[in-house]
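I am sending you the entry underneath: sequence plus fold tokens. Let me know what the token row says about the fold:
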Amino acid sequence: MANARNTSAAPAKASPDANTAVYIVTLSAWLIPGLGHILQKRYVRGVLLMLAVCIMFFAGLGMQGKVYSFNTGDLLDILGFVGDIGTGVLYFLARAMDWGAGNIHRAVADYGTKYIVVAGLLNVIAVVDAYHIAIGKKQ
């Protein structure tokens, strides 16, 4: 009796065009929150992710939260930067417009900073989800 593992055919290699599509979906999912899902015709999930990330980001800015810049000095600043850059184009827009200077005199500003970081981390999770859908690992 033959072993089932030995008789199965090797999985087919993805074409270069399919790999390019995966890269485009992944990059667009990071740059514009929800776009990776929208490109894959998952409209409801994409719009919900876009709304969630944008509302959290702009609510954090409204609370005068801090948008971290690249810094190699303090570990918490580095982690905050990693979280913030996860929002993609929203991060670059905030840095270009000089938003998110932070207001240490207001207690709610600390919550705003956390909203901005969590918006970026949510978008990172959405990017991973869009990638898994693109490679066929998830429906």
User: Anything to note?
Assistant: The chain has a mean pLDDT of 90.
